[in-house]
Structures are given as structure tokens and as C-alpha cells.
Amino acid sequence: MSTSTAPTLATRLLGTREGTAAIVQNVLLAVIGAAALWLSAKIKVPFYPVEMTLQVLVVLLIGAAYGWRLGGATVALYLAQGALGLPVFTGTPEKGIGIAYMMGPTGGYLLGFLVMAVMTGWALQRIGTRNVFAIGAVMLVADAIMFAFGLAWLGTLFGWDKPILEWGLYPFILGDLTKVALAAALTAGIARFAEKG
């Protein structure tokens, strides 16, 4: 396994650019990624035992496609939009907006999204995007870390004597395993497409 970083999927698909062209491309990709996150927060998919959004899927794909720097910047842009009061999160504006919403029960998961994108991008730039099982393992660990942030914040808000695992983990395990598997398969498929192109 090489310790050098490989080009991101986005670079392999769109080509390498320099100077102003690279900046413009990265800004456009970040805006597109933040918009995809916004949309994914609003889509509710019927699932068992609770309906699910597609944010985890999109965050993993952003990290995998953009790499850790642009992936992290893209999720940071999305969080900044929410902090400024745009209704980009699940349940906004009905459940509040801005910093007040971000300090609520989902705040830890939102921060976890940033860590998830950075970790996924960093790891996949080192191990590559060809082996779907390795990709899935990276994404599973990133998802677990996101949950750790979310549960830590729930415990801080409501107390560790409360059933935070029943609130913030157990109902979402099956949905997240599905999203991790789908993200890994899509990443490997896109990588193979990029190689043929």
C-alpha cells in the first residue's frame, strides 16, 4: 500500500487544471456538493425502522470524489450556509435555523459530517478507489466516527443517564449500512469508469 496520495476521482474525471481555472473548478465543485447535501437533507426515503435521508451517502461520495481538502471545504461550506440561516438541514426551517438549530440534538452529527468527508477523502487518496471492500471499510469507520460525534453531543445535551443509543444510533444502523454499501459500490464503479475514460 502506497503512502503517496493518488489523484481524486474528480481530478481523474475532469482533468487537472492550474491557476485560476483550478480555483474556479474547485469553487464550482464545492457549490455543487453543498447543493447536493442540501437536497439530500430534504429527501426522505421510507425505510425500517425509521425513514432516512441521503446525507450520509452524499457526504461519503463527496469525500471519495473530492479528496480530503475539497471534500472538507465542501461540507464546511454546507455547514456555513446552515449557520447563516439558510434552511439546508433536515427539518429546517420547521425545527429552527442557523446556529440555534446546529446547537440542537443533531449538532454533533453535523460536525461529524465534516470529519467523515475529510477522513474518507484522506484514506481513499492513499489506498485507492478500486477495491470495493477496502472502500467500504474506510466508509464504515468514517460513519462510526460521525456517530461518535453525534452521540457525544447528545450525551452532553441530555445527560449520559438517558438512552442516547436508542435515540441516536440503533434506529439508524441498518440505513447507514445500506448507504455505506451503496457509496462504496458507486465509488468503485466511478473509479473503473474513470480508468476506461
Helix-strand layout with pairing:
Blueprint: H1 9-14, H2 19-42, H3 55-83, H4 98-102, H5 107-127, H6 132-158, H7 164-168, H8 173-196
Helix pairs in contact: 2-3, 3-5, 3-8, 5-6, 6-8
3D structure, described in words:
- This protein has 197 residues and is mainly alpha-helical.
- The chain has a single domain, classed as Arp2/3 complex 21 kDa subunit ARPC3 (Orthogonal Bundle).
- Helices cover 72% and strands 0% of the residues.
- It has helices spanning 9-14, 19-42, 55-83, 98-102, 107-127, 132-158, 164-168, 173-196.
- α2 packs across α3, α3 (55-83) crosses α5 (107-127) and α6 packs antiparallel against α8 (173-196).
- The chain is globular.
